[in-house]
């Protein structure tokens, strides 16, 4: 599946051993999943902080706690249930991760993006991602749904660091990290349904602290409209695998001068939960339109 040439030097045996073990784990996990569900979806969804209620929109066929899946990481963050779901949404078979993994939890980037590698092995072609984020754009309001048009990677480790996995080139192009056709379709859906959406650039930093006012200001100067702690590594690996990506950030707090207030994880979850139905409608209608 992965090809014969692993682009590894024979004199670097420790890296080669790790690489081959990683590939074997991906294959083992994919085979386990295929043996436990008859569904073969081409679309996957990743549900972020406070966004697990979208899973209630799914007509579930099979579900597996992460702890039961070979080699799968386990989410440690409140608001991330930790289930892999197979079912139907918008009349189409889908795979959904109810909870994701973060670098700040102590995972390596290979572990953070392990699900995307497994998605490729399972034949996933489209990936929808959601997250809760802090808005740095002064025109944004709490509860806004931001269609992610691009991203800035501000995390300390790149998910493609190390030997190249032959799902894509050593130096993958990222000029269209977020699929333009998906974005245009989402705009049309929002317009037809009367759903307010904004658009912008998402910046991923390390976490787990929320940003200081000075950091928010810096990120805005760098071109970010929203800031969070996830999504970007997953998109990078998905694009390396040739998977089309679409993402929505729910603006749960504001990092705008004069509007910054103390924020807690519980408040972020509450703000995300309030607008989940609108995001679910966009996801559902968009999935319906996928050929």
TrEMBL record:
The keyword Phosphoprotein applies. Residues 44-288 form the Nucleoside phosphorylase domain. The keyword Ion transport does not apply. It is an enzyme of class 2 (transferase). Pfam families: PNP_UDP_1. GO terms for molecular function: purine-nucleoside phosphorylase activity. GO terms for cellular component: cytoplasm. Pathway: Purine metabolism; purine nucleoside salvage. This is Purine nucleoside phosphorylase. It comes from Alloprevotella tannerae ATCC 51259.
